[in-house]
Amino acid sequence: MSNKTKRDVFEKALREWDDLVHSCGLQGEEAHGGCEFDPVLIKYKNEYDDALPDDLPVIPKAVAAYIKKCKHDGIAIASAMDEDKFPKKVADYFRNYYTRDQWIELQDTFARAWVDGYTVEEA
């Protein structure tokens, strides 16, 4: 596995594409920022910046609603993960673990969903 991020790979692809386009006979000012492809490259870079990560955690609808409500109400993640404060459906989600590793994985999933965003699992 590489230490490169997806962002590193994407930016390398943009640079190589830009170099290729400019090596196709453009000269002078055309080759340094005036190329018709420059706006396209900038557009894709901006779209990439705004896009969600590829590997968002998948969580149940009830957990997604709980995270949304907690964030709206200004509740910190540490307080939100207090089992005594869970609504019933969220508590049920966390109670479905069978081993310590599964419990830790659920906590990690919840935290990643809180920080990075999430996809709601299909019913």
Q: What does this molecule look like?
A:
The mean pLDDT is 82. The chain has helices at residues 6-22, 38-50, 61-72, 77-80, 88-95, 100-116; strands at 58-59, 119-120. The longest helix has 17 residues, at 6-22. It has a two-stranded parallel sheet with strand order 1-2. α1 packs antiparallel against α2 (38-50). The protein folds into two domains: 6-50; 58-120, no CATH class. The protein is elongated, with a radius of gyration of 22 Å. It is built from six helices and two strands. It is mainly α and 123 residues long.
The poorly predicted ranges are none
What's the arrangement of strands in the largest beta sheet? 1-2
Classify the beta-strand content into a percent band: under 5%
| Coarse morphology | elongated
Assign a percent range to the helix content: 55-70%
Mean pLDDT: 82
Number of helices: 6
Features:
6 helices; elongated; two-stranded parallel sheet; mainly alpha; 2 domains; 123 residues
How are the secondary structure elements laid out?
Layout: H1 6-22, H2 38-50, E1 58-59, H3 61-72, H4 77-80, H5 88-95, H6 100-116, E2 119-120
Parallel strand pairs: 1-2
